[in-house]
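2 proteins. here.
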Amino acid sequence: MKQLLLVEDSVMFGRLTKARLEAEFDRPVYWTKSYAETVKILDLADNNFSMALLDLNLPDAPNGEVIDQVVGRGITSFVFTSNMSNSLRDQVWSKKVADYILKDDPNSLDYIITAMKRLQKNEDSLILLVDDSRLYRTNLAELLYVQKFRVVAARNGPEALEILQKHPEIKLVITDYNMPQMDGCLLCQMIRAEFTQEDLAIIGLSSEEDKGIGARFIKSGANDFITKDSFLVEEFYCRVNQCVENIDLIRQIKESAVRDFLTGLYNRRYFFNGGEMLFASSIRDQIDLVCAMVDIDLFKRVNDTYGHDVGDLVIQQVAALLQNRIRATDIVARFGGEEFCILAVNMGISEAKVVFDDIRRMIANTPILYDNQQKSLHVSVSIGVCVERTESLEQMIKVADDFLYKAKKSGRNCIRVSF
């Protein structure tokens, strides 16, 4: 995120807003109090602002001229105003602003900060537009770009289904009803055959006056419906953001259910679910599979000597080192306490010895900083590795655990491999 621009002629309100924004976003906020001052700083700091909060009425620009100046430079803008009539609302939205906020609302600052943070998240959100009208796709895409969404487009249902297969990270599909080859409701049904409402959201669009189209969209699997020719930009943004936020929330809940709260690694539950699939795949495709148990040596002594807070730091750093060394195709999980389990695919015996001994040495040689990074300590790990093709995942884990015990008995800070 680049710098923030605040344009506000009220000294009291400007001082309060500047302080709040700097505290929330941890970056300086440049504050101007007039149109002329704003143009000057924009010329001096060209392309250095990512977002701006603008007063609609300034002494030298009473009719929102500052909005055109800032938005025209590609800066995502929010508008503060003391009042908002219907005609003024239409005027503000026509200027391609991200949102507007009423100053007399006691929660206005909270709202604007939430909206700004949401736009930062939107940069990671991909939306698919499906419409046979190039003009309409372009118009909707421009609205979504203002909210910093990433956008891909399709001309019809088959194209949309192909794009979804290539981009499973898509969070929202916005689709028209009347299209060649496949109407929007049929497209919804085909999407729902592959993606649940927990995976992605769908908003249906139609210019027809038939009120039954909305119900058909919902029954076909859409989350929401908008009539093309009559929606307000404000309404469109609210519906889109609500759909995307719901998908993000569901994904967050799912992720937290399979992640260890302290380290961010997968937990024991996920290890067995994902591990069973890897194990079955290794049997089916005759792929090498390696299971390793990793345990921090003398961890109780660390807790007793330095305290549990430092003990948590030790666990977190060992977890981070493991995560950074293990490939994305492998699974590394915290099994509990100071113990971790790794499942690695396509790793032979000789490679396993090299990789896990490298991990052991890396952990032993990396200092763990504590007490505001003023002090450090070193820990080591013992590792047991199973490279045998056993009858089950549980059996692989047991073999690795047995060899972990042998590593401990051999003096710790070493690996033992089953072959």
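next one coming up
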Amino acid sequence: MWKFIVRRVFLAIIIVFLGSFIIYGVMRAMPTSFVDAMARQRAAASATTGGPTFEEWRAQLNETYHLDVNPVVGFLSWMGGVLHGDFGTSWMYGIPVTQKFNEVIWYSVVLNIITLVLQVITCIPLGIQAARRQYSGFDYGITVFAMLCISLPTFFLATVLKYIFAIRLELVDLYGIVGRFHQQLSPAGKMLDMAQHMILPVLTLAMLNIGGLTRYTRTNMLEVLNADYIRTARAKGLPEKEVINRHAFRNTLIPLVSYMSYLVPSLFSGSMITETLYQIPGIGYIAYDAMVAGDLPFTMFYSMFGLILTQISLMLADIMYAVVDPRVRVN
């Protein structure tokens, strides 16, 4: 097991390094540039006093931010700082990247944890029941609902939910993480206010991912229920509840663990759109603004965060195979 973990960690380091280099090269090639915007502002401010021109400001800023070298040298310079724990200072927010990350990550963590728990407790029972009642009205209803969730774009679903619950019913606010009178509330009231603003983002993220997990659970459960050992268990007279929970569901967990290993990184990447639509000040919303502005240090940190999270999830999934099914051994 330890040899396997060491090999996977080594492979993950290589993937993170190569992935970061590709992202760095893409960011350097983007037409939008924070340096160009800053140079344009400074040139306009100093035009009346005969100060430096736009080209002079841009050359000076490129030298300051080490953008006057080729991407390979620039990336290695950035990676050298990362190895010493220095991810740089965000160009857009003017503070260290890690400080800004610590300020906003917890909004995303809470949002995604609640969404993940809601998905698991909803999708797995629905998928199992749909498989047990194959070709019934319940099965068809779950299938239609799952396909709708898979097909709906994020912006469309968020717009519909905001129109129904925020505009028509006036139950929640359209945007933000806190209400207008948040500071005047008691500590318990502040928590309830933030929880109320989380309802629509959580519902949006959950609905977007419920369909895939439900369909995946149903498909694998159908395959297990048609296996010979399930027919044998039923022939021995075991109660149906024991057949499903003890024999069938345990073997369904193996492909589910593989599928769910992608849920955490996909939720964080998917929450970027959701957080932006609802203006939740989480890591996704902040990273989106940084990317649009061409903030290279923050974008690189966010990208590396996503790469590392993905590799950790995949490694944990491989380890969980042996926990779920004793027949699986990591060697």
